[in-house]
Amino acid sequence: MSALKLAAYAIDCADPRRLAEFYGRLLGWQIDEPASEESWVELADPAGGAPLAFQLDPEHRAPTWPDREVPQMAHLDVRVATLDEGHERATAAGAVQLPQPPDQLDAKFRVYADPEGHPFCMCAAQ
């Protein structure tokens, strides 16, 4: 049996290019134009890992986290040196900080929303 390799992690959204550009600013990754089209845009991992992809879903509804009316389904965790650095990078890229879970006020992560409302976390190195 051959070993499997993750081909991509895809996020559904209403505007794939706009969301790819946001995550490109956040992560410092570039859009892989040959692998992209109007309904599918890929960010290439400069370390050679699986790309982060953004897939058109014209009926995309933003998660309502922390409310469960529209669940988030999955989220990204981004490792940074400090929470201050993470906050600066996230907001400079265009993210909005979300409320910290009440039971996690002292945690080493902060929660943000991307321009289409998907939550993601900036996590301080241990």
TrEMBL record:
Q: Which CDD domains does the record associate with it?
A: VOC
Highest taxon of the source?
Answer: Bacteria
Residues covered by the VOC domain: 5-125
Q: By what name is this protein known?
A: VOC family protein
